[in-house]
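Below is how a single chain appears once it has passed through the pipeline. First comes the sequence as given, then the structure the pipeline wrote out for it. We keep one example in the README because the format questions we get most often are answered faster by looking than by reading.
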Amino acid sequence: MVAKIKFGKHIPGAIIYNELKVAAGQAQLIGAYGFHRNADKLSLYEKMQFFKKITELNRRAKTNCIHISLNFHPEDVIDSAKMREIATQYLEGIGLGDQPCLVYQHWDTRHPHTHLVTTNIGFDGKRIQLDNIGKGIGADVRRRIETDFDLIKAEGRGRTMTTDKGDELSPVVYGQVATKASMDHIVSTVIRRFRFESLEEFNTILSNFNVFADAGLPGTQLNNRGGLQYFIVNSSGSKVSVPIKASLLSGRPTLKFLEGKFRNSSAAAIDFSGLVKRRIDQVLFANKIAGEQHFKELLRDQGIYVVTSPGHALAVAGSWAFVDTRTGSLYRSEQLGANYFADRLRGRIAYSQRVDPREREWNHCYIDQVLSETDYKKGFAAVLNSWAMQGVLVKCWRDKNGQLKFNIGHVQVDPGNWWPADKKISSYLQANHYLEPASNLFYQEFLNRNPKQAITLDREAANPILEAMEKLGRFVFSSMADIISVLLESSGTTTISPFLMQQRKRKKKL
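Resulting structure:
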């Protein structure tokens, strides 16, 4: 394990850094120590306000932010529960056990790691001494944790903390690669990286890589003896290779061994369903999906494999399984909710191709009015806040070719009917670094502060567009200035106005 500690003066910046990773689907908040609510109930505003109240108890302290990353070897088996335990022991060891702390698990690199955001200002306003916290006390705590949790040591074993590209998984094709070696790699990697609570769930994950673990039918010799053998299967699930006994593979992944894994996965389970649903929803929102296969391909780009025929007793009718390679978790439709069953998803896929022309036109007219009245000279933060207070939001996404796209709409209008930003506004947003993670985080925080309200537009009105303008303009939304300033600062944004962009173009031509 390697611990990296950074000291700073701006806690909101450290929080936003991690929240942007969450918005991008590359991290998850797994712990909130010392807060008044559970981690999954805390809004971004509440997290920042909580730390603000503490740091204001000591305005003289120049350093009040501690941002720690704990990095583990790719071969270390670390689930979220174990990561929280390590974070707790590390904080207690360096003298910050009583401090509020946000714990984020990240998946943006090949090796498992977690980020801790805390402060050295106590609840009594006194500053906690941090002298020698890294190389002295911190090194002793790190060694103790490596021993207690049986982790690969950062020193003394001749192995270094590097990422392992061999950890990547892809479906095996029988006859193109060595059967035993490829099967060995897939089985050992799945066991190390994923949580599963039954043989059925284990096979659901393996099916994405064309491997099947067979315990035999009831009454057969293999089943009676508790044996297990592995096969390579084709795309339809039919066995195409000779069986390989579990005892011949690395780690001996026998049925008895897996049963221990089932119990450990159940005990250490943490709910990543919200993260998985968010990535599914983003794919449905940001793309015109040609069909079910296209939907699967788009999700696979987000690290989610879809099994439309889970084929086990736990699944109910119309249930799909979603295997998330980033969090090492598996969820079925019934665990995610009614909107994630096959019929609902097929309906949402079909809806991604349709728009309501009238509502789209209402939205377009309102957006045109807001944009025409915008004073861009006030700076990007002021512009973004002005739009938000009028209910206008921007969503950034990438098409299948990786090109940045922006949709603009009123929060009361269905996102499917938002209007694509023109080239000028798209360039303005992109020049100010308002990209996917920032727009997703801002969109979610806006909805947390301003729940959607019911709105009915009269389609038979004499002038429905004017009626829409009047009704949409009636809503008043809270200021988002506090979030915007920190969000843009963390994104490295420097205000660039359309006027400045034109000046730069003229200079290039000259």
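Confidence is low (pLDDT under 50) at residues 157-166.

See the next section for the split statistics.
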